[in-house]
């Protein structure tokens, strides 16, 4: 019999991942939805219909009703708090999958706590922007016991994702270790793009000409973030796609890993990126998005934060 699935956390990433589970996950029963702010569950449920989704009033209800519980939440505190609530229920024989980006120590501690209660646990952070979650093009990084990972793989490639990186039979925290290191590439990429565009503007080449090079040479995330920078999306958007506090959390986790493994002296680019993320927060607070680093880098060279009037 197909397992009953639940999804906890309907933010920018969770919404798209749910959409693909519902549409392509071959679910035999409605996907159980839980989100701290109930209105988000209602919106997702109305998008998919009552034959495809069902709202749970509490995390406990979602857990009781389900065999596999996915979650995608903001940060370590949210994940710890949510798993503690899950563990008030009898979870023996169930499987909990965390798709959030958290510190590997958090993931390893969760794996110990959850498996200690007789449930399986998989760390499964994902790479890709919300648009990729929506289109089922994420890269899923899985770690945990083989039995637990095998139970999740049918919902990854071809459903929520386009590729998997599997650390089967390794500590669940190896998935978030990979994710945190991988995210340093994203943090440094937006800094690099910002510096390139500032130099293109100040030197007279012009950002459109540089963007043509970036799109040709580095299609994919470089081109997408470059586009959002030159269009002014980095300050115009009301609600961020990759909230600045999430990006700052990723930078903190990477720095903490560097410190605990004796690599902090080598993380010079990360330190610069981290300082710029903090300044985005000072400048535009919760509206800050990861490409808003462009605004900060512009001000470093005497340009206004905004690249367009209005
Ligand atoms: N955005 C990206 O580009 C991206 C890409 C890859 C991975 N990620 C990672 O994926 C995770 C989710 O990111 P997102 O962009 O979807 O974030 P988001 O849009 O800010 O959504 C966060 C979700 O977590 C919930 N939440 C936050 N604090 C909570 C708490 N204390 N208790 C219960 N629920 C809580 C929120 O519930 P409410 O609706 O009630 O606020 C919401 O459902 C993060 O770990 C992020 O680093 C993000």
Automatic annotation (TrEMBL):
- Active site (UniProt): 179
| 6-phosphogluconate dehydrogenase NADP-binding domain: residues covered | 5-154
Q: Where is the signal peptide?
A: none
Pfam families registered for this protein in UniProt: NAD_binding_2
Q: Give the record's keywords alphabetically.
A: Oxidoreductase
Highest rank taxon of the organism:
Eukaryota
One annotated GO molecular function: oxidoreductase activity
Protein family membership: Belongs to the HIBADH-related family. NP60 subfamily.
Write the protein's name.
6-phosphogluconate dehydrogenase 2
What species is given as this protein's source?
Decorospora gaudefroyi
